Amino acid sequence: MNEGLKAVGKGFLQLGNYLFVAFLFAPSFIEKREMTFSDVGFGFIFLVFLYALGGFLIFKSTKQANNNKGN
Q: Distance of alpha carbon 22 from its chain centroid, rounded?
C-alpha cells in the first residue's frame, strides 16, 4: 500500500508539472487573448492543491514505511 500511495503522490506531482505549462500557455493560444489575473490566480491555486496533495501522499507513504520498519 505504501508504494501505491507513493506512486499516486508522484502522479499528482507530475500532473501538476504538466498543468503548470498548460496554465502558462494554453489560454493565450486557445482564445487568442491576454491572460488575466483570474487565470493566473486559478492556475496557481490549483497547482498548489495538486502539489500539496502529491507531497502529502508521498510523506504519508514514507512515514508508514518507516513505522513498519521499526516494528
A: 13
